[in-house]
Amino acid sequence: MKIVIVGPFYPLRGGIAHFGASFAHWLGVRGHSVFPISFSRLYPKFLFPGKSQEESGQALPSYTITATPIIDSLYPLSWLRAAEHIRHLQPDVVVFTHWLTFFVPCYATLMTLLKKRTHAKLIVLLHNFKPHEARPGDAFLLWLLTRQPDGYLMLSESVKADLLAVQPKAVCQVSPHPLYDIFGNALDKHEARRALGLSMSQKVILFFGYIRKYKGLDLLLDAMPALIKLFPELKLIVAGEFYSDEQAYREKIKSLGIEAHLLLETSYIPSEKVAQYFCAADCVVLPYRAATQSGVVPIAYHFELPVIVTNVGGLSEVVRDGKTGFVVAPNCADALVEAIKKFYDLQHTIDFKAHLRAEKQKYSWQAFVEAFEQLILQLEK
Asked: Domains (ranges, CATH) in the chain?
């Protein structure tokens, strides 16, 4: 098939761009012709508190397909030009990557024009349906998003339920988030820790990704004093850029007296350094207040690292409690303390790596692409 994917691609940064690149790559491996259409401007400043919207390092292997950056999210004339560009490609399928309602007016415009001018099936790839942080107008924009598509591909049952609550007749296919294989092979733990100035005698846990209120880093910080009493050598790595009030977090760290037990790397982590942080850690903690799914879990699984997640959204769908990690109640620092203690108490009893190696087989890109193909076949019946 000839497939157009609309969404962010390299050199734009972040998990959505990583996902799009890998999806395009593996569609190509399956023999499809893929045409990524990206953004010349992605976010306006009010939606992007970070320092740069582009990767600072080199493109990784899955970025071998070059995207055409012709959509300006703030300039509707560019949407019309993009629709005309896509029409000339004569695609069989156009995939729209959805993760934020801000882009719905652009996508809805493109879909309206493409419905009139092409015979392409219109698919929305839902990283989430409802936004993690609600804004005025979201309900209308989500309704608008569901007016035109022929089908939907999503990464969790939680997202499917959110979609069906708005569009009960939606044709959809669920396939879990595949493993990210673009960050290279695992590093030796000694090497990774040495690079970060950590010793092998320390217990090290990792919080990774953009720091936003819904991700619950404050709860993990609240858990640290009790954890330090249990494990005086404990170190928490916080690796990710602040997208909410940085000063409030720094004041909390100071008031809790845990500065010496934190390694803060609060700039965007370049792709080529991701392995360093995961391979230095014993486990990854996702203390989220809300979630649909997370790209952090597939990275952890790629590096065969256990995860401790809260029971929100689709996170518990991909964690085998007591085997690939632990699932705990949300909004509770004490539950995080108990789970992290349990992990260290059992890490030499439970063969987490063996369970992770078995679980990894479920999350291949081939399986994800096949689910996409099944959705297209379903629409053609």
From this structure: 2-178+364-380 (3.40.50.2000), 189-360 (3.40.50.2000)
Sign of CA dihedral 196, 202, 205, 211: negative
How many helices and strands (H and E) does the chain possess?
A: 13, 13
Provide the 3-class DSSP secondary structure of residue 88: helix
Bridge pairing between strands 172-174 and 151-154: parallel
- Residue 25 above 70 pLDDT? yes
Q: Of the candidates 109, 120, 65, which has an alpha carbon nearest to the alpha carbon of residue 87? A: 120
Spell 190-214 as b/e; 16+ CB within 10 A means b.
eebbeebebeeebbbbbbbbebbee
Q: What is the pLDDT of residues 48-72, one digit of tens each?
A: 555 555 666 555 555 567 899 999 9
State the number of CA atoms in the 13 A half-sphere of 190 facing the CB: 0
- The answer, yes or no, to whether residue 13 has pLDDT greater than 90, is no
Q: What's the rounded Cα separation, in Å, for the pair 245 and 39?
A: 28
Contacts of 214 (CB under 8 A, 6+ apart): 132, 133, 288, 289, 290, 291
What pLDDT is recorded for position 55? 64
59-106 pLDDT, tens per residue?
555 556 789 999 999 999 999 999 999 999 999 999 999 999 999 999
Query: For 344-359, what is the mean pLDDT?
Result: 96
State how far the Cα of 53 lies from the Cα of 129, in Å rounded to an integer.
Answer: 23
Residue 277 · residue 206 · CB < 8 Å: yes
Mean pLDDT of the chain: 93
